[in-house]
Design a protein that fits this description.
Elements: H1 5-25, H2 29-53, E1 70-74, E2 80-87, E3 90-96, E4 102-108, E5 113-118, E6 124-131, E7 134-140, E8 146-153, E9 156-162, E10 168-175, E11 178-184, E12 190-197, E13 200-206, E14 212-219, E15 222-228, E16 234-241, E17 244-250, E18 256-261, E19 268-272, E20 279-285, E21 288-294, E22 300-307, E23 310-316, E24 322-329, E25 332-338, E26 344-351, E27 354-360, E28 366-372, E29 377-382, E30 388-394, E31 399-404, E32 410-416, E33 421-426, E34 432-439, E35 442-448, E36 454-459, E37 462-464
Antiparallel strand pairs: 1-2, 2-3, 3-4, 4-5, 5-6, 6-7, 7-8, 8-9, 9-10, 10-11, 11-12, 12-13, 13-14, 14-15, 15-16, 16-17, 17-18, 18-19, 19-20, 20-21, 21-22, 22-23, 23-24, 24-25, 25-26, 26-27, 27-28, 28-29, 29-30, 30-31, 31-32, 32-33, 33-34, 34-35, 35-36, 36-37
Length: 466
Amino acid sequence: MNSYTPSLAELEIRLGKLERQNRRWKYLGFPFRLLGRSIFLLAKVLRKRLSAASTAATPAAAYDTLVVHRLELRDKAGKLRGLWSVADGVPVLWLSDAAGQRRAALGVTALGPDLNLYDAAGKTRAALAVNAAGPGLVLYDAAGEPRATLGVTADGAGLGLVDAAGELRAALTVLAEGPGLGLSDAAGKLRVGLGIMAEGPGLELCDPAGTPRAALGVTAEGPNVVLSDAAGKGRARLQVVADGPVLLLSDAAGKTRAGLDATADSPGLMLLDAAGKGGAKLFVTADGPSLGLYDAPGKPRAELIVTADGPSLGLTDTTGKPCAGLIVTADGPRLGLADIAGKTRAQLAVVAEDPQLSLYDAAGKTRAVLVVLAEGPGLELRDDAGQPRAGLAVLAEGPGLALNDAAGKTRAGLGAFADGPGLELRDAAGQVRAGLGTFAEGPRLVLNDDAGKTRALLTEDGLSRP
């Protein structure tokens, strides 16, 4: 009934440390979602800003002077290839191809300078602008829809990739928190976030609702994996720290209910109740495996261990005092029962193939022993000094009772044998002084002197003196 509380306490300390590390890890997913939103907003702002910058007014058709309001650049065939003018207060430089199609426009609007590049069909394919928010570049597809944005704002630099439906699908940013990559689905929901923050690199995977469901990160303590439910609450955490890997499982309320700790010294498994106190703890130390069961207040109530000496089971009361213990050693199994003070008062054992029951007083002294030998069962009663005072046995010849004095000398013996029952009384020297028996011939009483010689014999025939 030895207690393994120190080892359990060490396991609980490690569990508490890991839970604190995981509480810090829970917030690593937040910058991913922040990065995705920042990239999305950056793309929208750049698209709106550059679109406005690319709508500079077309200059008037004709001017009488050569250079004051309008400058035309024509090729040798007389085709207009370039036009520099000011329209509605916006200076604009237009460049056209040999077919007369406008292909580039450089202007300065109220928002800032911008450059637009067009394809042969006149569709805007690239736009570069600088305004109060910062420089930005937008690339368009053949339909004239923005598909890629690159910009630098006060928050940082960002690259956004947009699908044909106008939804942001990929975003790469470098913010104060660190670089981050966000990947979204067709509905624009962030599904994958990859970033490097002060704590270390991290990867987050989200469900169709955009709720984080899996996160992978590497911090100073080691790699960490978090799996969350539909509400975004972490339900499973796997971490590798200096001591070894650890797995924690939580309920819907965020309470840790199971923990697996695989370390070099003492791997362990913990199962906890909703309050985090009662439950079971299974672990392996250098001495061997151990299982502890705890009640709702967190008191140890049962411990099962296996050591080099053998397996053992200990049961305790509500105060934590041992009240029952079962152990199996090389000598055989033993069961011990204790009183409310934790003192062993009864022990049942099998020693050398012989079952034995021992009863102890409050001081721990053996007061009664019941044993079954090859010859037969026997009961021995002892005084507080440990001396056997009474013995009852059943042998092949029949049952017998022996009563001893304080020195352990047998002073009276009562037996029932094949010949008949008999009573024997002895003196302090061990000499038989009186014997009473019933035989086939009839009852007989014998009285002896201190030398053991018969001095009187009483039978049915009468009294005689040999």
